[in-house]
Design goal:
This protein has a 4-stranded mixed β-sheet with strand order 4-1-6-5, sandwiched between helices. The protein has a 3-stranded antiparallel β-sheet with strand order 3-2-7. β2 and β3 form a beta hairpin. The longest helix has 13 residues. The model has no long low-confidence stretch (mean pLDDT 93). It has one domain: Nucleoside Triphosphate Pyrophosphohydrolase. With 146 residues, it is α+β, with helices and mostly antiparallel strands. α2 runs antiparallel to α3.
């Protein structure tokens, strides 16, 4: 298996009422997050976001339906996950996107990645995330959504 690229997307999926979709990590029960995933090959960041949303939630998002917040976060990769990357890689660059979906949008989880999902009001969703970058992205998206 080739090493993961240390560049990823984070996609905050929300409804017009600012309820946010969170996914519980299969490898870490109790860790809740938005959709995340690494960029592959020559994908654009929007293509990565669209692919990850489809893989992790079953939601088919048109690339044009995504909002690119033009915000990138650099963070240290947890030691337990570094084996997925090339030797010496310790940090990742994450690009923030959002996707507004109608209330009642069906979610189909990738069982190897996630145990459960829940829709939460944006303030509760931000508080439930284990990742500071995910929390901040939810606060940004919710604060800018009319």
């Amino acid at each position: 298996m080739k090493p993961k690229r240390p560049e990823s997307v984070l996609v905050v999926i929300h409804t017009p009422a600012r309820n946010v979709l969170l996914l519980e990590r299969a490898s870490h029960p109790g860790y809740w997050q938005s959709v995340t995933g690494s960029r592959e090959d020559d994908e654009t960041l929007a293509e990565t976001a669209r692919r990850e949303v489809a893989e992790e939630t079953g939601i088919e998002a048109a690339t044009a339906g995504l909002t690119d917040w033009r915000l990138s976060n650099r963070f240290e990769i947890f030691a337990e996950w570094r084996h997925r990357y090339a030797d010496g890689v310790t940090h990742n660059i994450e690009h923030v996107f959002s996707l507004c979906v109608p209330d009642g949008t069906a979610v189909t989880l990738a069982p190897d990645e996630h145990l459960a999902y829940r829709w939460l009001p944006w303030t509760d969703a931000a508080a439930a995330c284990f990742s500071w970058s995910n929390r901040d992205a939810i606060l940004l998206v919710a604060g800018s959504t009319p």
